[in-house]
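The record is passed on directly below:
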Amino acid sequence: MAKGLSRVVAVVAARLNSSRLPEKQLLDLAGEPLIERIFQRLQQVAEIDQLVLATTADQYNQPLLEWAEKSARAAFAYSGEIDDVVGRVDAVVQKYEADIVVFCCGDSPLIEPSTLSKMISALQHNPTAEYVALCPAASGKMAIHEGFYPYRRSVWNRIVSASITPEQREHVGLAIRSSVADLKHCYVDDAAIFSRVQQRISVDTIADYHLMNTLYQRWYADNDPLSIVSLPWVIEQLQADEALANINHGVQQRAPGQVPLRVLVVTQGGQQVGLGHLARSGVVARCFQEQSAAAVTLFLQGDQVDYPPLDLLPKSRIGWGDSLVEKVDDWLEHHPVDVVIFDLAVIENPADFLALLQKLGDENIVRIAIDGLFQFTAQLEHIHVPSFYLSAAVEHSADSAKISYGWDHYLLPQVTKVTPWQPGQRLLVMSGGSDPHALGKQWPKMLDEQLTESMEIIWIQGPFAQPPEIAADSHHQWQLLKNPADLPSIMENCSYALCVYGVSFFELLQRGVPTVVLGVGVEPQEIAALVGEQVATVATSPIEAVHGLRALLGDDDRAEHYYRHAQALIGGQKGAENLLTRVQPLIGRELK
């Protein structure tokens, strides 16, 4: 602290109890936890005299305190209410005798040091000013900055005194928001580049984290590991890369005092039932979490499986030997919810399941099913069928008004950009999560025999499947990938695909990949309807599929037609958003 200047204490408020992204402060950003990246940026601000982590003293947040000790960072463990952020920060302010308080959010790893430095300096050199703000941008647009708020101690004390309600105690500054204009301001200029784009740069959801992790990985691939990510560089990246900017485009910020929608998604996955239910449930969970600011928990029954898209979602797991009904009922006794969404492959005891649905209805919990449970339609508010096809018997049933389906109902991750199709030699083969038709024993030999021209074949081995039997003298170039985390990008970079009927088939259509699909074990009427849609070559046996692939490789016009027609039907996929729209009026209160 320079002689005669105010003492500046920056307080980083962080706890691991986030309802949308638990333990986010410890998530990795290019080799360091998110919380460390925040501290590294604040260390660049010369005006800050003391930098302190403010967390809570409960057991759940001990890992943050352990990180602070290991990293030689000052930390304070608050023993009061975990949601009393004002009280927690004020305890640090008093302990370190701050003249200027810089309140920092523990989920903002792009705090701009240069801007914060100018704001602190303005308060230090304008002793009559009570509040510092940025000069409005010439463009009229808001600056991109998030996560830092400098206050003179007198204003901070006013915040503490005025923060009476739980919402005011949790959201720092809320109590004086309406009276800020009455404070005596000083203003600082900010670089024009910081108002060029409007983008979320805090981390509240999985989408936010994916954006931030992508930016950090790109920066440190080309820059000094001791540097900090340049915010002007980030803005240039966002302007140049539309797909990057769209990663968290739909995320809704939870408003102060907003009671989040509480959702339980019950699903199953494993060797016997595949991964399609898990995949769809993950898409639904993220949509509700990001676009309605909901608190979502996945309740998973099945085999332990490495499925990266679910890694960061709050979840509870049980095995096949457990009673799903009993475990869900017990979980709900301790975790009140507004909505339960079921995406199930197996129901062991229909009578018990019916009783559970009736109990949920008695408690005014909205009951939703995905792709099934038609026998329980009377006990459900809605059934969302992620398919272009619905059997005539179901479509004309007594409760058909509760059921919706169509090409706009598929529950697939958003694809921000599709590369125009070009002929090529790269073929993607997908035999299913457990390869139930033993295609690994059949297709490699068939592909050697039927495709005389050498192809680059990428075989995706599901987590429960055996490796394919590839001949040592095969004239094709084979690449075997087991349950890869980057499957979407692999799909996008293939010229053709050979797969079984299921979720992955529709993900390929979504990306415009000309595909041959094997429809074994599927209702004949559904296969006939799919043939009529003319979005792919449809086969009913493994050898017919390979013959169809050979014909497709030699017919660019047909491949181009598949690319364009599939894009028209399923390219702009908003199935999860459609489900959210259906649920909203059933709750009795707005979701946003």
The domain at 8-196 is CATH 3.90.550.10 (Spore Coat Polysaccharide Biosynthesis Protein SpsA; Chain A).
